[in-house]
Design goal:
13% of the residues lie in helices and 34% in strands. It is mostly beta strands and 149 residues long. The chain folds into 2 domains: 38 residues, no CATH class; 100 residues, Immunoglobulin-like (Sandwich). It has a 4-stranded antiparallel sheet, with no helix packed on it. The longest helix is centred in the N-terminal third of the chain and has 12 residues. The termini are far apart. The model has no long low-confidence stretch (mean pLDDT 76).
């Protein structure tokens, strides 16, 4: 339950009905409502080096077993599903408010033709899922020094 603060916010344009505005502002600022109204898709960084493509997905609070990474043709999909369940008996629970916790999302990336699908590697460290997709040999830039005659 959220405590509702009522104030004289006449300067905010609430002159007609300040009570109604305060109630709606309090409702939408409640953590229960705002957490569920905001998209729960984690942020991603995508980079590239000479030999690999790098995907970093920020997903703190998860474990590596919560992730399922699939490759179908050139689509790389990251699936997460996590439920928080309490195994205590009903008699032992004494709480005034409890909200179930369920996290689920899917992120899909189209890999370029220059990606090598055989050696994709992933690791989950400190809340960041890191995926390295190597490039095909012909996509790696060849550098060499050319002698002048």
């Amino acid at each position: 339950m959220t405590l509702v603060k009522f104030g004289n916010n006449l300067s905010k344009g609430n002159a007609l009905n300040p009570l109604l505005s305060d109630v709606f502002e309090s409702f939408f600022n409640d953590s229960f409502v705002s957490d569920r109204m905001v998209s729960r898709v984690p942020a991603v960084n995508i980079g590239e080096s000479d030999k690999e493509y790098h995907i970093e997905l920020a997903a703190p609070g998860l474990e590596k077993n919560d992730f399922k990474i699939n490759l179908e043709k050139n689509l790389l999909s990251i699936n997460v599903e996590k439920r928080t369940e309490n195994t205590e008996s009903q008699e032992a629970k004494k709480y005034n408010k409890r909200e179930f916790s369920y996290t689920s999302f899917v992120r899909t990336f189209t890999l370029p033709e220059s990606a090598s699908y055989e050696d994709i590697q992933a690791e989950y460290i400190d809340g960041i899922l890191k995926i390295n997709v190597p490039k095909k040999e012909e996509a790696i830039p060849q550098t060499r020094e050319i002698n002048i005659k």
